[in-house]
Amino acid sequence: MNPLKIQEMLGQAKAMQEQMQRKMAETIVEANSGGGAVTVRMNGQKQIQKLTIDPSAVLGLSGNAADVEMLEDLIVAALNDAGRRVDEALKSGLTSMLGGLNLPPGLL
User: Fold this and answer.
1) Which residues, in sequence order, are bridge partners of residue 87?
2) Nearest to 82 by CA among 54, 41, 51, 52
3) Structural domains present in the chain
4) Please, which residues have CB within 8 angstroms of residue 27's CB and are 6 or more apart in sequence?
5) Above 70 in pLDDT, residue 12?
6) Residues 46, 86 contacting (CB under 8 angstroms)
7) Secondary element (H or E) of residue 73
8) 1 versus 4: which is more confidently predicted?
């Protein structure tokens, strides 16, 4: 193997990593649950940017444990969906970025 070729490949890999990190920071997804009762906005680094709870989802929360549990479940569902959407967006971006490489199936 040519050491210069390896150095070039490492440089390309580093550039791709930096590009992917920029893309992650710029990626924003939004997910909701309960017909829009809870909405989550998350970036590509899976940091929550905003959580919105429709006021109608909390009007009946006068200490009723079932209602609190339902709201908690809606929040968890929206967070999990946003996380899945980030994963899909990043996988799609990574696949297009690495499309020229003949990687084994299931690697991404």
Assistant:
1) none
2) 41
3) 27-89 (3.30.1310.10)
4) 43, 44, 86, 89, 90, 93
5) yes
6) yes
7) helix 65-97
8) 4
**Distance, CA of 108 to CA of 106 (rounded, Å):** 5
User: What is the number of H-type helices and E-type strands within the chain?
Assistant: 2, 3
The one-letter amino acid code at 81 reads D
Q: Which residues share a beta bridge with 99? A: none
* Segment 27-56, tens digit of pLDDT: 999 999 999 999 999 999 899 999 999 998
The two structure tokens encoding residue 61? 């929360």
CA-CA distance, 27 to 42, in Å (whole number)? 8
pTM of the model: 0.71
Return the residue matching tokens 């444990």: 65
pLDDT digits (tens, 9 = 90+) for 56-74: 888 766 666 668 888 999 9
Q: What is the Cα–Cα distance from 15 to 11, expressed in whole angstroms?
A: 6
Distance CA 8, CA 103 (A): 19
Q: Name the residue among 41, 20, 4, 37 with its Cα closest to residue 92.
A: 20
